[in-house]
Structures are given as C-alpha cells and as structure tokens.
C-alpha cells in the first residue's frame, strides 16, 4: 500500500522543515517539506552503488566544545569508503560527502556524480554519516529521548565530527598531504559550504548543490519556496496551476458535509477511513511539493519512482480529464502519479505513517537552530498563509522544552551581505542550483568571486547534478557537470603547485 501520513505525523522526505504558520481565519499547522527521507529510503532500499563501499566506525567524542567529564563520551560514527581508484602516491585527492539528516548508505546510493568522477581524479571516496542519524546514535535507542540527549545534535557538532574524522583518517592512511574536497546536497550542501568556511585548513574546496544557506532570518522572502513550486506548475500548464489552486476550497467544502470524511476517503481511495481531512490535504500537498523538487529530466527513483519531468506529466493528467470533473478529483489523479507511477497500489494509506528509519532528529534541529520560516502568498497555488514565530516557538517548547534560536545560523555562519563578506576572505566554493528546485531561492545564485562560483540551470531540480550520469541526460546537465569537474581540477592543480613550492 502506498503510504503518506496525517498532519500530525512525521513525513520524512528530502529537505523540509517543521514550521507553524497562521491562516487568516484560524491557527493550524501548514504542511511543509522536511529534510528527511523516509519515502526515499523505502523507494531506494534495493538500489546499489556503482562501486563497493567498505563500512567503518569511528570512535567520536560526544561534545567537541566543552571539557566537562561527559564531553569525552565516545560513540561510533559510521562512514563508508571506496578506494577502488585511489592513487595516493600519485597525489589522488580525498572526496568527502558531508552526510545529511539520514542514513549515509542512502546518500551514497544517490550521489553517483562522485563515483562517476572518481576514476578521472584517482580519488578516495568517503561518505560520513551525520550524528544522531542512521547508525550513528550517541545514546543508542535513547538518543531521541529528551533535550538532555538531543542537545548534542546541531550543525556545529556535526562539522567538528567531520573535521576530527578526516584528520584521523588521513593520519591512519599516511596521507597527510592529500587534498580534501567536500561535497554535499541540500542540508548536506549547507554543511559542505559551512565546512569550507569553518575548516579551510582541512578542505581545499566545497561543492554545495541545492544548498539553501540564505533561507534564514529575512534574507530570502518567506513565500519564495511555495511561489517557486507554483511557478513550476504554472509554466507546465496554466490550467493545471488553476485546478490545483482551486482544489483546496473544494476539499474544505467537502469536509463540511455530514459524511464528508467518508466522501473524501472514497475519492482518495484510502485503505482505511480517514480521521481528518487534513490527511488528504497533506497527501496532495506532499505530492506537489516533492514532484516539483525532483522534476528531473530523466526517469528517477529518488523520492518515489517517477517519469522524466514529472511536473509536466502531472499537468498532462489534469489537462486530459473531462471538463466536468471536479478540481479535487483532478488534483487527486495528478497526485497519484507521485504515489503510484508503477501502478502497483490498490489503495492509499494516508494516515498512520511511521518513522521506520529513526530519522526524526530533524524535527529537533528545526526547533533549535534550523529555523527557516515559510509562508504561502496569494500567488501560490496553495492556500495563503502567514508565519507566526510565537506559535512556532510555543510548539517547540511544548514538544522539547526548548526555545528556538532563529538568528543563530546567520550569527554562526553568516548570510547577510554574503557577496561582500565572502569576496573578502572566502574561496574555492561551487554553489549549484536548478531554478525548478524551490529551494534554489534560498541559494547562492550569482558568482561571488573568481573562485566562489554559482552554477545555475533553468531546468535543474534538487541537486540533479549529483545524480549518476545517464545516456539521456540533457546537454545543459552534461555541461554543468563538466564545469564542476573543471573547477575541481583547477583547485587541485593550484594546491599541488603550492605544495611543490613549499
């Protein structure tokens, strides 16, 4: 059965955040995409990488920033290595993936770009798992127990983990002079960029794909994410956009009927009767948001099995239905492409989603430092909403007993006037974004200097450049990857030249 979750359940998918918004007439939570990957993991659990990966565990300390007795507690951090093409004696680099909020195996499977370029560079590949995700649990099954344990989950600790592990690895393999380049997509891309800024003595460069490092405070307009999703559908078909925009009112109207939930359950072909109309709303919402994010130019199985350019395919479904059909039924038919492209599902489970992989640490991160406010404007195809920090903070306090720090990311890593700041001291960074990815609006979209480069593609989706190359890749994607390879090669050439001179 195809599964999603209710409005009160955790939906673990690609880059998304728990944020409370307030509608003009009432207070309720709005569905927003998260940075987690339950559906993606389930969809890809049988996939394998192009090259074998060896599993290792590193004895990592709990707290890098204090010297209390408990700070030295050790947990075992998972990392994966492939040395098939590494030529240490020939100066081969070390390419490190800075793991996101999920199982590191999943990221290795879905970062084929690093495997594709490893032979050219004779590179050692390393994928490091983020603390509190996958198998890297500092307190085992009790890691998510309370704020006392979750307090050690933040981006600063994660970056320090990567720094300590990389230094130790280089010592153990007697490769102190090997240059390191970090790679990351989405939240991992943010970490890669921040790692280059915080630890320039460890990584000579960073490739940050679809990294919304400017999606904090008021740097990026709060409505930009959902405006971008809406624009993707509008460009595919104006009628499609208008049908989806009008479907929410029909759903609300249906929910007021005496047998409204029964009618909605029947229309949505649910496996069990619904308990809340918001389950149907979130089910539709999720499909449209994530389809926009993964609007790849080739068939893919990242979030779910989907055809090439799935936004266009959704709109073809809507535009092809009879004019007499309701907007809600058309929206359901389009969303079914996301959940049932393989045509294997007889019914849909809209409620009761579970955290099968223990990935809900992102909820804590979103309630502490990763505060990324979002709204829906009148131009959006989603119902208009505004943002209430007060409601958001109250929810976090209720759930975890903590107060969010909405300005901490920009204090710790910067963001305001980033062009002026990084131009003065930053170097060797690639920010790649596809404008069909709604997260691109919070990314770096213009070159900052000769060595801090923004590669922007009009049809690109969420870190599409990190996917494995295929024979059907469009020319613009092939060119984007060639540019990235050329830039990385230049970093390495400069490093090796400086190394010889010293």
TrEMBL record:
Annotated signal sequence range: 1-27
Example GO molecular function: dipeptidyl-peptidase activity
Keywords of the record: Glycoprotein, Hydrolase, Protease, Signal
Family label: Belongs to the peptidase S28 family.
Matching Gene3D superfamilies: alpha/beta hydrolase, Serine carboxypeptidase S28, SKS domain
Lineage: Eukaryota, Viridiplantae, Streptophyta, Embryophyta, Tracheophyta
InterPro entries: AB_hydrolase_fold, Peptidase_S28, Ser_carbopepase_S28_SKS
GO biological process, any: proteolysis
Protein name: Lysosomal Pro-X carboxypeptidase
PANTHER family: ALPHA_BETA-HYDROLASES SUPERFAMILY PROTEIN, PROTEASE S28 PRO-X CARBOXYPEPTIDASE-RELATED
